[in-house]
Amino acid sequence: MPHLTSTTTYSPSTAFRTRFGIPGYAHPLVAPTEWAGLTRPGTPLHWVVLNVADGPGSRPDPHCLEAAGRLRNAGVRVLGHLDATFGARTFGELISDAHRYIDWYRVDGFLLDRCPTERTSLPEIRRTVTTLRAVRDDAHIVLGHGTHPYPGYAETADQLVTFSGPWSDYRWSQVAEWTADYPPDRFCHFVHGVPGPHLDEALRIARWQGASTIYFTDHTDRGGRVDPWETMPGYWDDIVSRIGTGVSE
Questions:
Q1: Coil, helix or strand for 248?
Q2: For 27, which DSSP code?
Q3: Contact between residue 229 and residue 24 where contact means Cβ atoms under 8 Å apart
Q4: Which of 24, 53, 164, 165 pairs with 204 at a CA distance of 20 to 30 A?
């Protein structure tokens, strides 16, 4: 597997703080409980991704605008979902989508999903990120590689998603050696199919691999047929409590 690159692990620090990065729930009309639950006081959120219709959609959606507004009023950072399709989408298409997210939903940054990982793609991604920062001051940029990319990407964005996949892979995964040069708040892990009894183990893996932004769910992708992130995990209250009480320290 591509993420099995090294046996080196991050050395724990008392400054390590785990928070959630929400990859993107279903539309607020389909998942009202999920969106409402994100504004509960004390939920350790780093950011929430807004994905209207595989991007910002063709026109403003009042339900998404309301959901994003509630989060921003609660002090939660909202990121617009941009699909890079591993480099297949053009620079112009991505920036056009970004402008719509800003104009319609006042997003605080972007998740560049399915981001390329190769060294040869780095200049174009750097160009895209530089432009995103120009069109939105102080934009928080997350590159959604889903695996460890060429190390140069770490100097391009605020955060990298270095794992996105099933628990069956995550529990045996290892961290790339170069990540030890960066603090944990630079890395994110998204893991689906995590059984409730293995939550502590999953949190320990994230900690030892140096990823402080996480999202774990017991839902699966059913062999790639469904999006496992669209609904809240069955153990949401449990994992919020565990992180809030410092169980991952």
A1: coil
A2: P
A3: yes
A4: 24
Distance, CA of 176 to CA of 189 (rounded, Å)? 13
CA gyration radius, the chain: 17
What tens digit of pLDDT does each residue of 127-145 get?
A: 999 999 999 999 999 999 9
Q: How many whole angstroms separate alpha carbon 111 and alpha carbon 23?
A: 9
Helix axes 122-135 and 91-105, enclosed angle (nearest 10): 30
- Cα torsion through 14, 180, 44, 54, rounded to 10: 180
Structural contact between residues 209 and 175, judged by C-beta atoms closer than 8 angstroms = yes
Joined tokens for residue 156: 């391009």
Residue-wise pLDDT for 198-249, tens only, equals 999 999 999 999 999 999 999 999 988 899 999 999 999 999 999 975 443 3
Please count the other Cβ atoms lying within 10 Å of the Cβ belonging to residue 241.
12
Indicate the residue type of 153.
Y
Judge if pTM exceeds 0.85. Answer: yes
Specify whether the CB–CB gap between 86 and 57 falls below 8 A.
no
Q: Using N-to-C axis directions, what is the helix angle for 91-105 and 62-73, rounded to 10°? A: 70
CA atoms within 13 A on the CB side of 141: 25
β-sheet bridge partners, residue 79: 49, 109
Q: How far is CA 117 from CA 93, 112, 122, 124, 173, in A?
A: 20, 12, 8, 12, 18
187-192 vs 159-166, strand pairing mode: parallel
Amino acid at 23: P
Which residue in this structure is represented by tokens 């790639």?
Answer: 224
